[in-house]
Every structure is written in C-alpha cells, then in structure tokens.
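Most newcomers find our protein records easier to grasp once they have seen one. Nothing more is needed to start thinking about how sequence determines fold. Here is such a record, shown just as it appears in the course material:
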Amino acid sequence: MTVIRTVAPDRGSRGSFTYAGFANLMRQFLLTLQCPDKIGLVYAVAEYLLNHRCNITDNRQFGDPLSGRFFMRIHFESTESSTNLEILRSGFRQIATEHDMQWRIDDPATKTRTLIMVSRHGHCLTDLLYRVSTGSLKIEVPVIVSNHTDMARLADWYGIRYEHIPTSKASKRHSEDRLLELIEEHSIELVVLARYMQILSDEVCRRLEGKAINIHHSFLPGFKGARPYQQAFDRGVKLIGATAHYITPELDEGPIIEQAVVRVDHTLGVQELATVGEDVESMTLAKAVRWHAEHRVHLNGGRTVVFR
C-alpha cells in the first residue's frame, strides 16, 4: 500500500508561515537579456517584476563600455499561483521591444536537451555523463553521435541512443545532413563536441552559432595537428591547459567560455602529460556546458560575458 502524507508548511509561534515554508510555495523563474546600454534598464525590469509580485533572489549584470551592450541574468520567484511562463513572457514583450532586448524567460528546473559528439577519446564524454547521472550537470542527453563505435558500450550502459555516422571527405555532406536531422528529431538545444575529431563545415557552424561548444588543449595554435602532447613534451612545456569555446567557421577561434591551466615539469612523460591534459579538458568542458545550460553565458561579439 502506498501512503501519501500531506505536510503543512512550517508556521511560527503565532501561526504565520516561516520563510522556509513560504519559500517552498514559490515558483522559480530565470530572466536573461542583453541590449544596447542606456539609463533605466534595471528600473524597467525591476518594476515589471514588482508589478507581477515577483521577488528577485539573484541578479547579475554588466554594462560593456567597449560594445555599448548591457547584459543581465535575474533569478526570481513568485507566490502567485496564476503566474506562469506564458504570462510573464507575454507581458515582458512590450518592455523588450521598447529597449531592443534579446531575452528569454525560463523555468530553471528545465534541463537543456543536449547532443554530444565524440570520436575515440572518451574522457570528456565519460565525465559529462557521470555528472549528468549524479544530477550535478542539469542537461538531458537523448543521443550521442560518433564517427567511430568505440564509445557505443558506454552509451548503452547509460541507456542513451548511440548514432554511428562514419565520416569521410566523400561522405561529409551526408554525415552532416544526418547530424542536422538528429538535432531536429530530438529538439536539441545544445551540441557538445567532446573531443570530436572532425571539422564541421562552415554551414553547420553558422547554423549552430552560440549553440555548440568545443573543447581543445590550449597548446593550439602552437602545437597543431597530430600528437600535440608529444609536441608539447618535445618542447618542454611548463603549463598544460584547455579551452572551451563556441564553434565558428574559423577553426578553434570561437568565443571563449572557459579556460584552465595546470603547471607541469620535466619529470612527466608524454603519457603523463596527456593524462593531466585530459583531466583539465574534462573539467573545463563540464564548466562551460553547465554555465551554458544555466543561461549564464552571453555572446558579446567575438567574446563572452559569463555570470558565474
């Protein structure tokens, strides 16, 4: 028999709700926006939320004097049972139009539908899937795409569809058409290149602008091509790093989301350097994906604004 127990909200000694009990009744929302910077933007947004009886719990904002753009991320809550995304979005459109805003209002509990691409190096994929399984990375992964079959067993273990799309110079167009079909089929919002060792066409890069994240070792462009860790070892590097960025038609030159480095020395061999590098790559990519999924990243021309 299943027993359903109802629990009354916490009350103070005089019968009033405590904040802890009250907070449990609140609906959570997330507003992100960017627009030309000018006087009155913060007031306009705050007034709108006040009129809808919403309480701001976290606010991050930045006015860029170089681009003249204003960026904002507001986490807010409402106790009005009738308040929902449709009402909030409908009412905000007038303000957004008046101030030429690019904006969105989301439910922060909604997971970003993500397609992960991988080749034969599985460290980043393994790390991402583990974080998803523990709930620390709030994305939903309905499909993994690879030009090899090496990671199929890992995908099967997590119960995720694995789409093997062999890629060659002759089949590149067909392979990318299939990728775009999968993105459409699964309503994908984010593509993650977790060491996917193929160059996407300019057309696909443009279609995925701001919606596809790549990871690479920060030896680029100093150590391009095959065996970068062997090249780094031969040059006696003292720092190993990784860069996570949005993809663009310009190879490995998209807007940077996150970078990390770790110091190494002469005692490490090639394989040890590679192991350290893989750890840095996995951690850096995971941060970039999490920040994107939490709507913390804004494109600002060739740069990004990241509200950590």
Observations:
- The chain has nine helices and 13 strands.
- The radius of gyration is 23 Å.
- Residues 270-293 form the longest helix (24 residues).
